[in-house]
Amino acid sequence: MNFPILSSLILLPVIGALFLFFTKDKNGNNLTAKYVSLFTTIVNFLISIYLWISFDQSTSSFQFVEDREWINGFINYKVGVDGISILFIILTTFITPLCIISVNNTIKVRLRDFLIAILIMESFMIGVFCALDLVVFYLFFEAGLIPMFLIIGIWGGPKRVYSAFKFFLYTLLGSVLMLVAIISIYWISGTTDVMKLYELGIDAKYQNLLWLAFFSSFAVKTPMWPVHTWLPDAHVEAPTAGSVLLAAILLKMAGYGFIRFSLGLFPIASEIFTPLIYTLSVIAIVFTSLIALMQEDMKKLIAYSSVAHMGFVTLGIFTIQQQGIEGSIIQMISHGLVSAALFLCVGVIYDRMHSRLISSYGGIVTIIPKYSVLFMLFTLAALGLPGTSGFIGEFLILMGAFKDNFLVAVIASLGVILGAAYMLWLYKRVVFGKLINTDLTKMVDLNKSEYFILTCLAVPTLFFGFYPDPLINTIEVSVNDLINTYNTNLINK
């Protein structure tokens, strides 16, 4: 197929953003901006579904590859997808239109500019998952900071400037080392082409330092303990749509980076540093779960739960087991759906009561029953109840962990119990109990757009919980090839 389908996916949101930038809505109601951005993102989602249908699941090689000379032959614009990256592209194109629908109720000021930021953000995120050149990956990876920085800094809460700068500085400082590492790889190997680097391999004597440089960036972005503190602050201050994008997609870029680059390019170093990853992952799972139990702000609680869930992801990736890596990918997809839904659920009641404090609520099950049912579904999915997508990911990760390190797996299993504790504790206090705050009686149940968004997230959460085969079949061959290549490189070196 000659049609540049991946470039279309990357460029279409930018074209939509440019159209919004150069057009003015005469009536000032931003209807044009809403419809254009929604149309753009839906078309992008349909293209990504076509990409999935056209994708050959029987091969581990990269497909739909586009390779064009960019900077004087030194750097090529090279994009392509395999079984690992395609699911993240679909997740991105699925979540973005839901974010745009959700802004109706949440963003009152400079809506057009906000939609432009989201569209540009979508382009950069898709670019990250498509990139097959280290420089191109880095540019997309870092460029995503800018629209998210603006989303938090302009449309966020009272402490938005502090949170935006904290988010920006943490992630930027981590990434400076990755840039140095990419320059070093070009100096050592003479190329930044990922496919060529997979074939050539990187000299063992350089791997440790290069691995640590990439790790510094991915650890902050994941975020791993102890560099996770920017995430709760960013989530609390970000508008609902910003929190959704941050939790659902931005955190997954780092997980994807670990699989694609840490394991793919530096297998010897990955083997050496696996105990470090295990230690930090287990601390993240247990420690942040305990902190989540202490939170009074709903957004902060869900933010800490994201750190714990990403701890499971990093644990699964470095087991180097088929179940572990597949579980991590499914966990990231599931967490993308469930965390997006949970932040939207918080946004729904915040729009009505202008409070995120758990103590402000209680007994709302009789007032807003539709909301309560959907909130319960996503709460149960977050704690990994069988029949939800959250269970599949966590179960496979723990299976992989038990194969590799029994003690680590046992400690990580505590995270499942603690996850159930803080999520059920949250639900009980918000939805059940006595109706103390009489103002809650004025609350109205989900409107059509809110109901539509949450239902759209509920369907795949349940579907993949009962039938994960479409996900497993897509990633199986690519993951198997990654593990075989990893083990071969270890033996040869």
Give your account of this protein's structure:
It contains 19 helices and two strands. Helix 4 packs antiparallel against helix 6 and helix 14 packs across helix 19. It is 75% helix and 3% strand. It has a domain of 222 residues. It is mainly α and 493 residues long. Strands 1-2 form a two-stranded antiparallel sheet.
Q: Count the strands? A: 2
Largest sheet: 2 strands, antiparallel
Span between termini: 38 Å
Strands of the largest sheet, in order across it? 1-2
User: Which sequence of SSEs, written as H and E, runs from N to C?
Assistant: HHEEHHHHHHHHHHHHHHHHH
* CA radius of gyration: 22 Å
Strand portion: under 5%
Spans of at least 5 consecutive residues with low confidence: none
Number of helical stretches of at least 4 residues: 19
Q: Considering DSSP H and I runs of 4 or more, what fraction of the residues is helical? A: over 70%
| Overall geometric form | globular
Output the structural class. Answer: mainly alpha
**Mean pLDDT, nearest integer?**
85
